[in-house]
UniProtKB/TrEMBL annotation:
Residue ranges of the region described as Disordered: 1-38
Task of the protein: Catalyzes the synthesis of D-serine from L-serine. D-serine is a key coagonist with glutamate at NMDA receptors. Has dehydratase activity towards both L-serine and D-serine.
Superkingdom to which the source organism belongs: Eukaryota
Composition skew (Polar residues), residue ranges: 1-14
Protein name, UniProt field: Serine racemase
Keyword Lyase part of the UniProt annotation: yes
Record-stated family: Belongs to the serine/threonine dehydratase family.
UniProt keyword list: Lyase, Pyridoxal phosphate
A Pfam family: PALP
Length: 471
């Protein structure tokens, strides 16, 4: 625990964010324990003020893009008037630059020379490295060994000191806190440092200038810094705008915090929305955001994949899972009360690996009922498989993969089992295919788990595999 002397308090600073927490004799702004961050203190959380955000907006305007917030083609599909705030267009591909550049600009001159440190898997590290280089402030990032190689290399190319250590974010953070103490570097928490939250709030200020009469904004929640800043900016200027938080089902740490009345650690599972995989929300973020959030929803993986697909197909936007989760919440039907209303969705990050993007697109197609897998038993006589492929081609179904198995089939020596992965136009087309197969074959089984074993198919509301035909 930090002792009282090393904490700052809101009252002692008149509600303003102090330049640095009190220093040790050697000038290092560090806590007296390796694990504790003096900026983010459980027993003395800092509630952000609107003026912090306006001050951030003024300071960051030279280094940060005012990204477009445009009416979307998705309006028809969703029944809402959707506006997309395209913050993935920032230089390093995410909104994280807003907070990172403000946090760096707010350092005292002496600290600017010494530098900063942080632990991050991706977007925050990239943002810090880029703006550190731009502002000539040394940056050290500790990235766990599970961090994507591409992101590690990008941080190195930006001239940062990149330490690849620790099995996960928890370990990386402990290493970073220790280095912060040893080297006199300020630790910058990527979601809970007050300057980070203030910087993220500038996205909210821009949105209200760009779109009139907003009814709601849907904000992805990881550690809570983005929603804290954005909710405060928007609710201060337009109290009637509803602020909706979205979490991944696999890491619903804000939902857990609301239930417990304080940030609590939750177990996390891997998710497409890796930017949201923070096991415990920040103390400052929680105290700032909790009173301002009107509704919190959690989304399943398949809707995130579907949202990524929709954004590529309809908007020509490549967005990562975390950035697509706002749209995912709408597609999943969690926000139907906003039908006919004007809704803003920040597309807050675009850093998705090409291989993951490919898998998301396939997964989205599967959820959409446009990529189907089925097994059918056909006659082993000449022309048996040809008949099947003729049926598929007559329906405009495109075969992606086909294999047939003879040796292990138990029922009929003159039969062969054929496994097909195919592409259909939509759910309706998929259902027509099922019907045609069941009319022509006695043993057909559709499997919704085309690639990943966990996608409930819209073809079948209860999410189980679908068997058709006369068994
Ligand atoms: C793309 C993207 N969206 C949303 C978030 C969530 O932001 P926060 O951790 O401030 O809640 C993150 C966090 O890394 C992110 O990278």
């Amino acid at each position: 625990m930090a002792d009282t002397a090393t904490r700052y308090t809101t009252s002692a600073t008149n509600g303003k964010i102090p330049d640095l927490p009190p220093k040790h004799q050697n000038g290092a702004s560090v806590d007296n324990s390796t694990e504790e961050d003096p900026w983010c203190n459980a027993s003395n959380p800092h509630q952000l003020h609107f003026e912090d955000i306006t001050s951030a907006a003024f300071k960051v305007k030279n280094g940060i893009l005012v990204t477009p917030c445009m009416k979307s083609h998705l309006s028809e599909l969703t029944g809402m008037e959707i506006f997309l705030k395209k913050d993935f267009l920032q230089y390093t591909g995410s909104f994280k630059e807003r907070g990172a550049s403000y946090a760096l600009l707010m350092l005292p001159e002496e600290q600017k020379r010494k530098g900063v440190i942080s632990a991050s898997l991706g977007n925050h590290a990239l943002a810090l490295c880029y703006h550190g280089k731009r502002l000539n402030i040394p940056v050290t990032v500790v990235m766990p060994i599970v961090a994507p190689i591409m992101k590690i290399q990008s941080c190195q190319q930006l001239g940062a000191n990149v330490v690849v250590q620790g099995h996960d974010m928890g370990e990386a953070k402990q290493i970073a806190m220790r280095l912060s103490k040893e080297r006199g570097l300020v630790y910058i928490n990527g979601y809970d440092h007050p300057h980070i939250m203030a910087g993220q709030g500038t996205l909210g200020l821009e949105v209200v200038e760009q779109v009139a009469n907003i009814d709601a904004i849907i904000v992805p929640v990881g550690g809570g810094g983005l929603i804290a800043g954005v909710a405060l900016a928007i609710k201060t200027l337009h109290p009637n705008v509803k602020v909706i938080g979205v979490e991944s089902e696999r890491c619903a740490s804000f939902t857990a915090a609301i239930k417990a009345g304080k940030p609590v650690p939750v177990p996390i599972q891997s998710t497409l929305a890796d930017g949201l995989a923070v096991p415990m929300v920040g103390y400052n973020a929680f105290i700032t955001a909790a009173p301002l959030i009107d509704k919190l929803v959690v989304v399943k993986e398949e809707w995130i994949a579907m949202a990524i697909l929709r954004l590529v197909e309809l908007e020509k936007c490549v967005v990562e899972g975390a950035g697509a989760s706002g749209l995912a919440a709408i597609l999943a039907g969690h926000l139907d009360e906003f039908k006919g209303k004007r809704v803003v969705i920040p597309l807050c990050g675009g850093n998705i690996d090409t291989t993951i993007l490919g898998r998301c697109l396939e997964r989205g197609l599967a959820v959409d009922g446009r990529l189907l897998k089925f097994t059918v038993t056909v006659s082993d006589r000449p022309g048996g498989i040809a008949e099947l492929t003729k049926l598929l081609s007559s329906m405009g179904v495109s075969i992606k993969d086909i294999i047939h198995e003879r040796a292990w089939i138990t029922s009929d020596i003159f039969s062969v089992q054929v496994k097909v992965v195919c592409e259909t136009r939509d759910v309706k087309h998929g259902k027509q295919l099922m019907k045609a197969l069941s009319e022509n074959y006695t043993n057909v089984h559709f499997d919704e788990n085309v690639f990943y074993g966990e996608i409930p198919s819209p073809l079948n509301e209860n999410g189980n595999g679908v068997s058709a035909g006369k068994h």
